[in-house]
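Bit of a strange request maybe. I'm writing a small parser for structure token strings and I need a real example to test against, not something I typed by hand. Could someone generate the tokens for this chain?
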Amino acid sequence: MSEPHENSCTAQAWTAAIAAALASMAALAMLRAGGALLAGDPATLYASIDFNAAPFEDLLGPYWRTAASVLDGEAVPDRQYLYPATLAVLLAPLTALGPGAGTAAAALSGATTLAALLLAALLASPARSAREAATFGVLAGAAFPLIHGVYWANAGAPCATVALLGWVLAARGDGRAGGALIGVAAAVKLTPLLLVAGLAACGRGRALRWAAGTFIALAILLPLLVLGPDGFRAFHLAAREQLHALVELTSTPEGARGAQDLRSFGIRLGLGSWGWALTLLGLAGWARWAIADIVRGRAAGGIWLLLVAVIVIRPCWAHGLAWLPAAWWFARGGGPAARRLIALSMIAASYPVSWLFETPTEFLRASGPLVAAGLAAAALALASGRAEPAQTTQA
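Reply from user aminoacidic:
Good idea to test on real output. This should exercise your parser:
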């Protein structure tokens, strides 16, 4: 593909992404205003997004407290901090500026999530018009996982969408930028390492080198420099112990009531041997298409790899599915059957539909987001290989 045409496609994607972002923000604003108006109290709206969480609960809570401990020289992960030290080290200087800086960082996290999601989708499969892109923005803005991730300011949402954007850029031939984005996302939250493995599987050597190098620099060298060898080791051992404790909790029926991984889903439903057999059969069917998309370096391969994180790694809340609207966009060319599955997936993952449940916890207990992911995966399988992203040189 010629460079002028490539630049033109990128400019169109940016234009469409801006249109979609504006539409998405408008949709979110309407949802917020409408909910507050009907409830007569904004606090009721906040509770409707996710039980007792205050806005930006994760970033202003465990992330911020952990970063503050790094600044104080203690470097102790908060009880709910389950990540590498990278995020705490990067946030540490901001904690000296006070809560206002934390709120600004949370807003930036939400903007990053939305921008990365829209750009990944529109670069992989360009919109036919700004109107189509804006419609996509509205649908994305009404998705519970996206709202959930932005509201909580959890690291899962921006990391998933940034990693997906990196995968799409690598698929288009930009191995340096694509690999670096995947490496950054993996350094903050380890699950995007699945995309690093995917780069190796599809033979994108340049992107793989950039991803691995960026990950090593941010996840290992930077924390080692700031914390020192003993502090680095102590920090990660403590975080690992907390993660193990959470895994044990979500392995019980009561503890699994909100987790969105496959095992917890089965625990909640009391899935028997036949149920598990049918589930595994379905996963095997999807694997056929997923492996093809991954080894050929298609844009959809990034979605499949992120879906693996949802299925295998626990616990995984709704914010881990922030990429779900991109799956709808990628799968829309799969024919009438795929479009019907997309529509069902949109309904299952819709924030307004969550209002039909007594609480967001009940919506999660019903596994609405996880069911939506399954339907989107089926639609993506129908569309697999029908549309290829624009490519330039080998990444």
